[in-house]
UniProtKB/TrEMBL annotation:
This is Energy transducer TonB. It is found in: Cell inner membrane. One of its GO terms (cellular component) is outer membrane-bounded periplasmic space. One of its GO terms (biological process) is protein transport. It comes from Flammeovirga pectinis. It is a single-pass membrane protein. Keywords: Cell inner membrane, Cell membrane, Membrane, Protein transport, Transmembrane, Transmembrane helix, Transport.
Length: 271
C-alpha cells in the first residue's frame, strides 16, 4: 500500500480524492432528481410492484461506501511520508561525519597467521663396529688463559633507541584548534585560492568535498586527505589548497598544546 502511494505521489492522491467526491455528489444528485421526477402515488405503486428496482433502499449503502472510501483515502494521505529537506551551514556539516571514521581509540586487529607444522628433526645414528678405533678429541686451552681475563662490556656498544614519534591526537579538546581570525576568515581565504577544475566544469560536477587533516603542535596542517569526495578534480584541488594553509592556533588540553584531527566541508558550486 505504501509503495503504491509513493508511486502515485501526494498530487495523485489529492486528485483521486477530489474526483471521488465529485462522482459521489453527482450520483446523489442523480438519485434525488429521479425521485423528484416520479409522482408520489406512482412511486409508491412502483415500489410495491417493482421492489427489486427500488433505488431508495441503496441510498444508505452508497453513502456509507462513499464515506468509507473518502476516510481511507484521507488517512492514507496523512500517512504518506513526505521527504524533508535540511539545509546546514558548511561548518555545521562537520558533525554529520561518522565519528567512527576518526575515532582515535580504534584498534586494528592483528592478522591471524596460519599455523606452521614444525619440521621433525631427523637424527642419524652411525654404528661403529669397534669402539677402540675412535680417536679422542682434545681441546687445546692456552696456558695464559686465567679467570682474570677481562671481557669487554657489551653495554658500551649499546645504542640508545631513537626518540619515539608522537602519533596520538584528539578530536575534541578543552580548547579546540582554530584558524587565526576565526573560521569565517578561513573560508574567505579558502574561497580566494580555490580554482574550479576545468574537468568539473565540463561535467557539471557540484557538491561538497570533506577533507580530514591534523593540526600539529606548531599549528601546521599535516595528513591532509579526502574522506568523502565528488571527483572531477575537485578532491585534488581541495587538498592542494589546504596544504598551503597558514598556521593555525593549536588545540589546548590541560594547559598544553596537543595534536587535533578535524574534518571540514569545502563546497564546489557552479554559478
Amino acid at each position: 500500500m505504501i509503495d503504491i502511494l509513493k508511486l502515485i505521489g501526494p498530487e495523485g492522491i489529492l486528485f483521486f480524492f477530489v474526483t471521488l467526491l465529485i462522482v459521489l455528489v453527482q450520483l446523489f444528485r442523480y438519485i434525488i432528481k429521479k425521485r423528484e421526477a416520479t409522482p408520489t402515488h406512482l412511486r409508491n405503486d412502483l415500489q410495491k410492484k417493482y421492489d427489486s428496482v427500488n433505488l431508495d433502499k441503496y441510498t444508505s449503502f452508497f453513502r456509507m461506501v462513499g464515506l468509507s472510501i473518502a476516510m481511507v483515502t484521507l488517512l492514507a494521505a496523512f500517512e504518506y511520508p513526505t521527504p524533508r529537506s535540511v539545509i546546514l551551514d558548511d561548518w555545521e556539516a562537520q558533525n554529520l561525519i561518522d565519528e567512527t571514521l576518526f575515532d582515535s581509540s580504534f584498534v586494528i586487529p592483528e592478522p591471524v597467521l596460519p599455523k606452521v607444522k614444525p619440521i621433525p628433526k631427523v637424527i642419524t645414528i652411525i654404528e661403529v663396529d669397534d669402539p677402540k678405533d675412535v680417536t679422542d678429541i682434545i681441546i687445546d686451552i692456552p696456558e695464559d688463559f686465567t679467570s682474570e681475563t677481562e671481557i669487554e662490556d657489551p653495554v658500551e656498544n649499546f645504542n640508545e633507541p631513537d626518540e619515539e614519534v608522537i602519533t596520538e591526537f584528539v578530536t575534541i579538546a578543552e580548547q579546540n584548534a582554530s584558524f587565526k581570525g576565526g573560521m569565517g576568515k578561513f573560508y574567505k581565504w579558502l574561497g580566494r585560492r580555490i580554482k574550479y577544475p576545468a574537468q568539473a566544469k565540463r561535467m557539471g560536477v557540484e557538491g561538497k568535498v570533506f577533507v580530514q587533516f591534523i593540526i600539529e603542535l606548531d599549528g601546521k596542517l599535516s595528513n591532509v586527505k579526502v574522506v568523502r569526495g565528488i571527483g572531477g578534480g575537485c578532491d585534488e584541488e581541495a587538498v592542494r589548497v589546504l596544504k598551503s594553509s597558514p598556521d593555525w592556533k593549536p588545540a589546548q588540553q590541560r594547559g598544553r598544546a596537543v595534536r587535533m584531527q578535524m574534518v571540514i566541508p569545502i563546497s564546489f558550486q557552479l554559478n
